[in-house]
Amino acid sequence: MARFPTWLGIALAGAVTLSLAGCSSTGGKRAEDARKAAAAQGGAAVNTPRWTFAMITHSGDGDTFWDIVQSGAKQAAVKDNVDFLYSHDDEAQQQAQLVDAAVDKKVDGIIVSLAKPDALKAAVARAEKAGIPVITVNSGSARSKAFGALTHVGQDETVAGEAVGDELTRRGRKKALCVLHEQGNVGHEQRCAGVAKTFDGTVENLYVNGTNMPDVQSAIEAKLQADTSVDAVVTLGAPYADTAVKARTDAGSKAEIDTFDLNAKVAAELKDGTLGFAVDQQPYLQGYQAVDLLWLYKYNGDVLGGGRPVLTGPQIVTKDQAAALEEYTKRGTR
User: Fold this and answer.
1) Which tens digits make up the pLDDT trace of 82-97?
2) H helices present in the chain, as ranges
3) Whole-angstrom distance between the N-terminal and C-terminal Cα of the chain?
């Protein structure tokens, strides 16, 4: 079984209890059958108005993590009779302009990530002034409420980092390299700070240019060659894990490679022992829940979370769970 912090185990147990109490033995199957039918026919499972929701993220081109987020959002949009619009830019000012463009289109709801929140503040405020409900997703949980968003869907990045620190300690590691691939991303800083907070060993941050994988590999390789005491490398995104593996090989290092996030490659490398563990924040769930929660607000005035973030992680995933998750990563939902 995956190793969960006590608080997460209690939360998940409560969620399971509530879901079991809220449906009959056949209710879950009926809901799933309805979802599959709606998806297959391209039709909605509800008869609410045809609302338009826009998601604007800080993703760069080719980031597979956001493909999974979109997959969840699109599934929920089909079910909820929603037109789903997606746009992204890894430059904060450009992302803010995309939010402004969505406001100008008079969409019915906006989902936005706040990796660099200060740059998005005015655009989010403009959306709310226009009467457009906003939900933040993935990054920016600490600023979401202050910005006036309905709620935030994602993991607490500091808590996720703390979970990694605990796991590194449990594994007997002594010195970890935390690889930050996007400078200025507050979530990345929070992750590495969380690792340092709970890890009994030493943590050193390494800043790399995440848009240039050869540079990422050479930077990690150089650090491992220069400091042979590093016995763990933590990457902050699934695509960077395999690059760190290659850097380890070229450097002749025996450091364990661990990562945030899952994809098919990570699942395979967990399975064969190439990677030590991964932190799953369930991006499919982030997209799905963000759309669903906007729909619930528009339809019924519902706000989930009680003013606090709706957490989708973290879950520590090891070799023991990799085989079961591999199927989901191949279909693009984990």
Assistant:
1) 999 999 999 999 999 9
2) 6-21, 27-41, 64-79, 92-104, 117-129, 141-144, 157-170, 186-198, 213-226, 238-251, 264-271, 283-300, 319-331
3) 17
Dump pLDDT digits (tens) for 297-323.
999 999 998 878 999 999 999 999 998
Neighbour order of strands in the sheet with 310-311? 82-88, 51-57, 109-112, 134-137, 152-154, 310-311
Encoded tokens for 191: 């992750």
pTM above 0.70, yes or no: yes
Residues 6+ apart with CB under 8 A from 60: 88, 90, 210, 211
Sheet of strand 278-280: strand arrangement: 202-207, 175-180, 232-235, 256-260, 278-280, 315-317
C-alpha to C-alpha distance for 263 and 91, rounded to whole angstroms: 24
Torsion sign across C-alpha atoms 213, 175, 178, 199 = positive
User: Stretch 26-53: mean pLDDT, rounded?
Assistant: 64
Encoded tokens for 8: 């997460």
Distance from C-alpha of 289 to C-alpha of 282, rounded to nearest angstrom: 11
Sign of the Cα pseudo-torsion (316, 322, 326, 328, in order): negative
